[in-house]
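Translate sequence into structure tokens.
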Amino acid sequence: MTAPLRLSVLDLIPVRSGQTSSQAMTASVGLARLADSLGYTRYWYAEHHNMPSVASTTPPVLIAATAAQTERIRVGSGGVMLPNHAPLVVAEQFAALEALAPGRIDLGIGRAPGSDPVITQLLRISGPTADVDRFPDHIADIQALLHPDGAALRMTSGNEYTVHATPSAGSVPTIWLLGSSDYSARLAASHGLPYVFAYHFSGDGIEAALELYRTNYTPSPEHPEPQTFLTLNASVAPTAEEARRRALPQMRAMARLRTGRPLSVLETVEDSENAGTDTATDQLVAAMEKRWVIGAPDAAGQAIRQLASRYGVDEVMVSPISGAFASDPLDSTPGRAQTLELLAAELLA
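Result follows.
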């Protein structure tokens, strides 16, 4: 018998041609309800800014809405980009979420800005943010603020002042550190935190990062053993041909991003197929096809099991990147729902 495998979902809330952000968010919450009913472990939202095709700018707001619409699944951030926020604000937001949905909240934290340099600078001059060079200190601050004992500040007078993230829930969110480098792996290990490798963004260096994490892990009371999983992009359909067609809009969008071209909402499948092409785009799309999971259910399920076995993880977080045909409804996401349904039948049944 094959070993059990946990599946989770990473959602960037894609916005396609002709679709409003409101319709995209409605579709996303519906997808989360589906994942809940299918037995997925967790549903995370990623923080990105100033991208026309991505509506997941505010994970805490989306987590609250999704937690209210689901029953069992864990809901969280994948992740909150900490340099964009004051640590106390993050701690209080997730303390409130934990109070609203006890035992179901994950706080995934990343070090990248999740935006271009102009937006990063705008965030820094227009609101409370965190110094990226103090990222390890701010991780420790959030851990302390969420702990029942709180964090202690020493005043210039010598007296101590205790600070708690409020509201104080009966439990605390699970903190995960996200990354795709040796730096994030070492930091997660030194803090005794679970670690997620962003394989969906870059598969380079995953072996070295996971080895560093596991061999340097310092046990913590909450996590005596290292815990990790990887993320990946997936488009699954009844046939490999349909899966590839539905993956094309997202692959072309990623090619535009990586070649510095203007970004736009996602194309429909038909628009992607009818669009002009060039050597750079074709090369990038071909590279994505090799690393992403794109295919019929049996092949896709086998590929995911092989990845999990190769890297020694018992959970995989899927970013369902299946695009839409022009005839698909605007307030739901049939292609992405199909990916989750078919993978659940292969791996969770």
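Note: The first strand starts at residue 6 and ends at 11.
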